[in-house]
Amino acid sequence: MKVKHTAIIYIIIGLFHILPIQPKAQNKIEFNKLINDLGTFSEDSKPKTCTFKFTNHQAKAIAIAHVQSTCGCAVPQYTKKAIKPGESGEIKITYNPQGRPGIFNRAILVSFSDQTEKTRLFVKGTVTPGVVRKINPIHMLWETYNYEPPALN
Q: Can you tell me the distance from the alpha carbon of 88 to that of 17, in angstroms, rounded to the nearest whole number?
């Protein structure tokens, strides 16, 4: 019985020596924040813009390969040139609230030239309903066909 326990201990110790313990790979591109809260604003307001800044801590220059939004309401603009080691770049996201009242949380996927994993950024906030516009569909029909509505007595 004692021999079995000793053999198991030697096997476990041997596995620790055979299998190297590797530290988790670190992302060498550091963002100042991953979530940008635009707060609360009206649906009638102008589009809001936020900026995500990042620094290249790698030994070689990188470039943003692609920035993709999960919705057409969030439009990205980003640094097009290569970012050398120690330099910074930025990604600006412009959110258009028109026709989108309510709470939103949009994901932005960023691909860099030398990385297989995408970085996820988030833009969130709350859009309050704008001015209520009442449209009478009957009057729209009359205007479309140049037909005068009958006079009400």
A: 41
| Residue carrying the six token digits 């449209």 | 135
- Determine whether 135 is exposed, middle or buried from the number of CB atoms within 10 Å of its CB (0-12, 13-18, 19+): exposed
What's at 116, amino acid-wise? T
**pTM tops 0.90:** no
DSSP labels for 111-125? EETT-SSPEEEEEEE
Q: Are 108 and 76 in contact (CB under 8 A)?
A: yes
Which residue type occupies 57?
Answer: H
What is the separation of C-alpha 110 from the centre of its chain, rounded to a whole number of angstroms?
Answer: 8
For 73-86, what is each residue's pLDDT tens digit?
Answer: 999 999 999 999 99
End-to-end CA distance of the chain: 108
| In contact, 63 and 81? CB cutoff 8 Å | yes
Dump pLDDT digits (tens) for 59-76.
999 999 999 998 899 999
